[in-house]
Amino acid sequence: MELKAVMTPGRPWAITHPLRAFFVTWIGQLLSLLGSRLSGFALGLAVYQESGSITQFAIYSSLVLLPNLLLSPFAGALADRWDRRRVMLLSDVGAGVNSLIVLLLVTWHDAAFWRSHPWLIYPPVILGAAFTTLRWPAYYAACTLLVPRQHLGRANALIDLAVGVAQVAAPVLAVALLARIGLGGILFIDLLSFLVSTGALLLVRFPAPVRRETDPARRDSLWEEMGLGWKFIRDRPGLMGLTAFTGVFNFVISMVPTLITPLVLSFADVSTLGLVQTTAGVGMLVGAVVASVWSGPRHLVASVLCAHLLSALALLVGCLRPSVPLIAVASSVFLFSIPPIQSRAWAIWQRKVAPELQGRVFAVRRMVTLAASPVASLLAGWLADRVFEPWLAVGGALAGTVGKLLGTGPGRGIAFLMGMLGVVCLGNVLAAWFNPRVRNLEDELSEPAPS
């Protein structure tokens, strides 16, 4: 049965043109992401300041991530069963209601109450993260139906641009707004952002893929569907190899931010660290803009590998000297490479996975991505403190060898670790290139019929 797509029936005022629907949705999600990042940063800062406990802050950070890991398969199955626009609506409405609950909790209780009861904020944090988890499989799967295949890389880059804008702008805005309107005001802004994104989704209509007669979603239970995404990837060696490549890539990009802060502070002050982070953030934004306007090489796999090679070189060069300009430029180049890698990799998945299966398959891919983050962050700190810093301390085990190239003293072990991550990136590129299933993925794995 040929796979076609049908437009979900809508009212006369609804935006049904696919590209227009994508851009309206993108604007709404951009504002929603910015509001969520604002409130998330401000709330985490408040938890730390009021409790005075790094443990409480670490628990808060983990609870934000945990629902994404546990619920991604369910979110993917739901995105394939339901209208993807409605799944995104459920995500925004649920997260918005949760923001209202947090706003009321913050308004009703003073700082002294939160110092003695910090755990009361955890249930709404978990609930909000659970609703947010529903968004991503549906968003990326809907993108395939709204954007022509030749422009999927650019559309994914726009999504990355929205994430980058939120990541760069939110901390700066949150610090400024906390002094003026307080945590309650920021939570109210977050609530307004959800209203805007919900309004955008109410205005648009997404095409809905017509299921094949053999589509498992017609007969399997929800639990069986949740395992289908993994089975789909496992049965295709090229996609399995690409998943492994992505897992290593995300492991590295999760370790680097953890290391940059102590590396810079080992020889510079906090204001210099802010300058380095801002420069790096600008690099990521420029990378997203470039990826959204330039289609890149015809072969997407080659484009992904070339961008990852650039990130490896940035890490190798950035570790050489304790120099602010050198580290700032290297950080900027490193983050510049991330949007092209992510957007082109997503385009491969969107082209090779049938639209009616994308929610489940994309959820597994996202779960692999997220699983690397907490492990990488914890391992980065342990390796830096217990292994690499002692090695390159004055008189350390590697002071007479590696120390002659990188120097010795505070921060040089961290620099050596970052250099080793550059070597890992090089190995990841070579492993993918010399794996014929990955290198020839675009030619060997057929694409589903267009929607």
UniProtKB/TrEMBL annotation:
CDD domains the UniProt entry points to: MFS_MefA_like (cd06173)
Major localisation: membrane
Transmembrane segments: 21-48, 54-75, 87-108, 120-146, 158-179, 185-204, 239-260, 272-293, 300-318, 324-341, 362-384, 414-434
Keyword vocabulary terms for this entry: Cell membrane, Membrane, Transmembrane, Transmembrane helix, Transport
A Pfam family: MFS_1
InterPro entries: MFS, MFS_trans_sf
Annotated membrane topology: Multi-pass membrane protein
Example GO molecular function: transmembrane transporter activity
Signal peptide stretch: none
Subcellular location as annotated: Cell membrane
High-level lineage: Bacteria, Pseudomonadati, Myxococcota, Myxococcia, Myxococcales
Keyword Isomerase listed: no
One GO cellular component term noted in the UniProt record for this chain: plasma membrane
Name of protein: MFS transporter
Keyword Isomerase attached: no
